[in-house]
TrEMBL record:
MF GO annotations: ATP binding; protein kinase activity
InterPro entries: Kinase-like_dom_sf, Prot_kinase_dom, Sel1-like, Sel1_AlgK, Ser/Thr_kinase_AS, TPR-like_helical_dom_sf, TPR_rpt
Keyword hit for Transport: no
Lineage of the organism: Bacteria, Pseudomonadati, Bacteroidota, Cytophagia, Cytophagales
UniProt name for this protein: Protein kinase domain-containing protein
Entry keyword set: TPR repeat
Species this protein is from: Fibrisoma limi BUZ 3
UniProt feature coiled coil, ranges: none
Domain of life: Bacteria
Placement of TPR repeats on the sequence: 451-484
Length: 640
């Protein structure tokens, strides 16, 4: 792709890849040689007409919007499923919050920046756009979150990604209106319960959560890694208010405390469970937020009912009064069953300071502390398998030194490891933490009390092939209840890494991880049952666990479930169902899934035979290095 030309621009580098498209930087080949961003739809999605329409509609919506705080579109090439946008210098708000959270604990800084966001969304919610021969009013973003906001070097924000937006009064949305679109932690209650009913006030809810996160520095909800956690977070959104900033931010002046009290009220109103109790316009929220800085005012801030004239022009909403203690939230749509879950404990942090938070640190092999990467998987390359000799896929750990991997959107690079103070006395010996690391302070021990910290240490040792130390820390993480630690510990036992091979132990730890909802553990457990390792061969159990992993979006599980349907193992053979699961893996960019989709198109199994589509899927797979796909293309006299 590097060097490809689109309009007057030549692509120079890849910026990032997402679930639907890839963004590149490009430069004009003449004149001022300005830089731009070019977004391409993923090649394997170009035959998916609903997704293609959604991609093109993003460009069409951006073209209708003209605001300095919303990224501009410069050109569209529908034949190549690509569009050109202005290049925005800077880092996302989420990156800023990770690297320097203290910046936005200053109310003046946060309110100045956030007011610009509210201006931009107020504009988007009221802009008149043309849909065919009709004029419609208002664009709802539906996916407002810190990672969709870029902060330019001058501190001003720029809004990205209108890919799942919709026209407020337009019945047809870019996606199935019954689907939940957006990021779980920022969804409004109505977005969870009835996505088709979402309007501009859902954006206001998401803005309230984003404002809360700017002051605290992290999301109010835990990272979602499985379906059960999705349900738990959604229940909290529907039934519980956000914690008050005044209870989380300590060591503040009396003036700042009064400001935070007012901001608490603003956030409470913006995130009210019922849309009619929220601000009815972003402009109203902006004015109230700016007034919060003036602590000499005696009136309560942010709890007044909205005036009818402040409602969205497309729909006048009767707003209800919100009690002063609006943190006493009422559940949204109580006909839905609430699932019980443990309370989330949020540790107070200091405002305007950056103390070491040991819950978010891990111990490196040289004894220093480093931030936890919050990785919940370490999948690597699968074995290459012949189409005619199916075996279920496994999660293979990375063995190469110096490898940099991306897992769940988080980059992890190998750290420089110093030589441990004491080597193990024998191949089976496991040394103590102090012997491994050297002097261990109380602060280090505090960090190691967390299961995720222990997992991180184990993974870092694994990357440098020090398997004995890796298994020690995986064991600690597993015993503390870390599902990914349990999965990795099972893998070490299965593959004789740092410990004698023991399929029974491997099975035990995979079972613990799988029961806890870890998708990799579920996929690996399925393979143990499929192959009869540590237990008798049981296709029914294999099918059960592959399905559990697949339904969480685990590509390995999706491929394995496809194989079960393809070969009729544990279930009646069903090529159409096999194609469905292969396709889901393929659409995640999985090369093996792409190869299997190609085989079904070539053979006409589960789908009408189509050699052109088979070649297309073989090609995208082959370009990722899949040897079977490369061989298939050679057999069909095609290049890749």
């Amino acid at each position: 792709m590097i060097g490809t030309k689109l309009f007057d621009y030549e692509i120079t580098r890849k910026i990032k890849a997402g679930g639907m498209g890839v963004v590149y930087e490009a430069q004009r080949v003449w004149g001022k040689r300005e830089r731009v961003a070019v977004k391409f739809l993923l090649e394997q999605l170009r035959d998916d007409e609903p997704i293609r329409r959604r991609f093109i509609r993003e460009a069409e919506i951006l073209e209708m919007l003209n605001h300095p705080r919303i990224v501009r579109i410069l050109g569209l090439d529908p034949d190549r499923d690509a569009f050109v946008m202005e290049f925005v210098e800077g880092k996302t708000l989420s990156e800023h919050l990770r690297s320097s959270p203290e910046t936005y604990r200053q109310p003046e800084v946060t309110i100045r920046m956030f007011a610009q966001l509210l201006d931009a969304f107020d504009y988007a919610h009221h802009v008149v756009v043309e849909i065919g021969s009709r004029q419609e009013q208002g664009v709802v973003h539906r996916d407002i979150k810190p990672s969709n906001i870029i902060i330019e070097p001058d501190g001003n924000p720029k809004i990205l990604d209108f890919g799942i937006s919709r026209i407020s009064t337009f019945e047809s949305t870019l996606t199935d209106p019954k689907l939940q679109m957006g990021s779980v932690a920022y969804m409004s209650p109505e977005q969870i319960v009835n996505p088709a009913a979402v309007d501009w006030r859902s954006d206001i809810y998401s803005l309230g959560v984003t404002l809360w996160e700017m002051f605290v520095g992290s999301s109010p909800y835990p990272q979602v890694t499985n379906f059960d956690m999705v349900v738990q977070v959604q229940n909290k959104i529907r039934n519980e208010p956000l914690p008050k900033l005044t209870e989380l931010l300590t060591n503040v002046s009396a003036k700042d405390k009064r400001v935070l009290q007012r901001i608490d009220a603003i956030i409470a109103k913006a995130t009210a469970k019922h849309p009619g109790q929220r601000y009815q316009r972003c402009q109203e929220m902006k004015e109230t937020l700016k007034a919060a800085l003036h602590v000499d005012q005696s009136a309560e801030i942010g709890v007044m009912p909205a005036k009818a004239t402040d409602a969205h022009p497309a729909e006048t909403v009767q707003a209800n009064n919100v009690p002063n203690d609006s943190h006493q939230a009422q559940p949204y749509l109580e006909e839905f069953t609430q699932i019980q879950e443990p309370n989330t404990v949020i540790t107070p942090i200091e405002m305007m300071a950056s103390p070491v938070n040991y819950e978010n640190m891990s111990l490196t092999p040289d004894g220093s502390l480093a931030p936890i990467s919050n990785v919940h998987g370490n999948t690597g390359a699968s074995k290459w398998l012949n189409r005619l000799q199916h075996q279920p896929r496994r999660v293979w750990a990375l063995l190469a030194l110096g490898t940099v991997v991306v897992v769940a959107g988080v980059w992890i690079s190998r750290i420089q490891s110093s030589t441990p103070a004491v080597q193990a006395a024998s191949p089976q010996a496991i040394v103590t933490p102090a012997a491994e690391i050297g002097e261990v302070t109380d602060e280090v021990l505090a960090a190691l009390s967390m299961a995720d910290s222990c997992y991180e240490v184990g993974y870092q040792y694994y990357q440098v092939r020090d398997y004995k130390k890796a298994i020690y820390w995986y064991q600690k993480a597993a015993n503390l209840g870390s599902p990914i630690g349990q999965t990795n510990l099972g893998y070490m036992y299965e593959h004789e890494l740092g410990v004698a091979r023991n399929y029974t132990e491997a099975l035990k730890w995979y079972q613990k991880a799988a029961t806890a909802g870890n998708a990799d553990g579920q996929n690996n457990l399925g393979s143990m049952y499929y192959n009869g390792l540590g237990t008798s061969k049981d296709y029914t159990q294999a099918l059960k666990w592959y399905r559990a992993a697949a339904e969480q979006g685990n590509a390995g599980g999706q491929i394995n479930l496809g194989i079960m349907y393809d070969e009729g193992h544990g279930v009646a053979a069903n090529k159409t169902e096999a194609l469905k699961w292969y396709m889901r893996a393929a659409n995640q960019g999985n090369a093996d899934g792409q190869y299997y989709v190609g085989t079904l198109y070539e053979l006409g199994e589960g789908v009408e035979q189509n050699e052109n589509k088979a070649v297309q899927w073989y090609r995208v797979s082959a370009r990722q290095g899949n040897r079977n796909a490369q061989g298939a293309l050679g057999r069909l006299n095609q290049t890749w």
